[in-house]
Design goal:
about 160 residues, alpha/beta, YbaK protein, five-stranded mixed β-sheet
Length: about 160
């Protein structure tokens, strides 16, 4: 059996003694959507959360963790993060800023500890799935544990 190399995100959870489960799935380069991840892992989309990286006019880079089926509400994210406006970063900036690639961006273990905003819907779930920081690997944990590990702010940030 191939030993899975621990990601930075998993190491952070280990250091905090937070319980989590690692689930792997087959990556489809043509479809990196959270909906595809849910189908491949045979999980309800309500439990799959994606990490979006944005830039606020005042705060700079921030991360938003929202349900895989939802769309970000930029006005709500701006308000929650103390910005007047927020927009997605350009894809070409993702790796230099976070160390992650599209389809494998985790709210934990990025190059810098950016502010993380977790959509309040996550708190309705017993456990949620987030990227482990690589494509094909998810971390499943309690939303309260993600809040603790990422020092996340809970806010209503989806449409």
């Amino acid at each position: 059996m191939k030993k899975v190399k621990k990601t930075n995100a998993a190491r952070i959870l280990d250091n905090l003694k937070i319980n989590y489960e690692v689930k792997t799935y087959e990556v489809d380069e043509e479809d990196l959507s959270a909906i595809h991840v849910a189908e491949t892992m045979e999980m309800d989309i309500k439990g799959i959360f994606k990490t979006l990286v944005a830039r606020g006019d005042k705060s700079g880079v921030i991360m938003a963790v929202i349900n895989g089926a939802d769309e970000i509400d930029f006005k709500a994210l701006a308000k929650a993060s103390g910005n007047k406006s927020v927009e997605m970063i350009h894809l070409k900036e993702l790796q230099p800023l976070t160390g992650y690639i599209r389809g494998g961006c985790s709210p934990l273990g990025a190059k810098k500890a950016y502010p993380v905003y977790l959509d309040s819907k996550a708190m309705n779930q017993e456990r949620i799935s987030i990227s482990a920081g690589v494509r094909g690997e998810q971390l499943i944990l309690a939303p309260t544990d993600l809040v603790k590990a990422a020092n996340a702010t809970i806010a209503d940030i989806v449409r």
